[in-house]
Amino acid sequence: MKNSRLFEILYLLVEKRAVTAGELAQRLEVSERTIYRDIEALSAAGIPVFTQQGQGGGIRLMDQFVLDKALLSQAQQDEILFALQAVLAAGSGLEKETLAQLTALFHREGGDWLEVDFTDWGSGAAERETFTLVKRAILARRPLSFTYYSSAGEKSRRAVEPARLVFKSGCWYLSAYCRIRQDWRIFRLARMEDPTLEEESCPPRHPPERLEVPSPGGEQGTELRLRFQPSAAWRVQDYFHPKQITRESDSHLLVNCNFPEDQWLLSFLLSFGSQLEVLSPGYWRDILVREGKKFLEVYET
Fold it and tell me: Among candidates 214, 210, 220, 218, which has minimal Cα distance to 188?
């Protein structure tokens, strides 16, 4: 426990350069006397730490001190670089300098061994700019306002307190407290338009550990049984969990799944065209038949 506390004190001093014993005691939930004993232990271990009296004083590290990279194992260094590569791929590029510095510090060659791209095919700079703005809002604890389109196509203006970026099923989402709904909501970044970073600050909020995407109107999910042509296997295996898929002797794929009944589900099923047959529920077969007739009317006209 003591060693863990000593490392935390050291990292805090590296980050802030100066901090009072009272601040450390409150942060680590120990007495100031314990903090001073910890400082003595760090000094005895060769860490150039000292106390400074008077206004602006506190516990300090010598300006020339640099945290030894040996405090991190090679595996931990690789994990840090991997995480930065991933953030850099979807971010604004501001992490590039940090990545270069850490790569040099860790003596890693070939820092470009990994490329991560979280964006959809054909997505442009606008989506990356939205990602960057949302990230700034979260880190600075500032509200965001934007125009949002629901999965049913409904347009509304939202004002939120952003809390967390979520990457799920190939898409970026924002978990935020919606000031209009007075509750937590999740927003898909690709459906956000004209995001604006407000000047005020917002209080820190802790989002729910697990937040599901609400369906329009609060519809409950429905159990679907789907049968796919072998030619759709690559999409089926990309989207559905292996436990949801059963391969038939003729290579057709049976899928049992649960989805909210909304416009998105209709678009998803239609995207497979003739590669998909809905086996149940029966009313979804009727819905697809009606949509097919609408297609015919458009092209026959």
Answer: 214
C-alpha span between 7 and 12 (Å, rounded): 9
Q: Hey, which bits of the chain come out as E strands? A: 18-19, 49-52, 58-61, 144-149, 155-168, 171-178, 183-188, 192-197, 221-228, 245-247, 253-260, 276-280
The residue type at 156: S
Nearest Cα to 28, choosing from 4, 48, 44, 52?
4
The SS3 call for residue 263 is: helix
Bridge partners, 175 (sequence order): 164, 186
Please tell me whether residue 76 adopts helix, strand or coil conformation. helix
pLDDT, tens digit, for every residue of 203-260? 888 888 766 555 444 445 789 999 999 999 989 988 888 889 999 999 999 999 988 7
pLDDT in tens, 81-135: 666 555 555 554 545 555 555 565 555 555 555 555 655 555 566 777 888 888 8
Whether the upstream peptide bond of residue 203 has omega within 30° of 0, thus cis, is no
Q: Please state the φ and ψ torsions of residue 124, each to the nearest 5 degrees.
A: -110, -160
> What residues does 278 pair with on adjacent strands?
226
pLDDT of residue 92: 47
Instruction: Tell me the three state secondary structure of residue 244.
Output: helix
CA Rg value for the chain: 27
**Which residue, chain included where needed, has tokens 């004002």?**
159
CA distances from 12 to 6, 27, 157, 162 (A): 10, 10, 40, 26
Helices (H), 141-262: 233-239
* Distance of alpha carbon 140 from alpha carbon 259, whole angstroms: 36
Q: What is the pLDDT of residue 246?
A: 94
What's the confidence (pLDDT) of residue 261? 78
Confidence of residue 143 (pLDDT cuts 50, 70, 90): very high
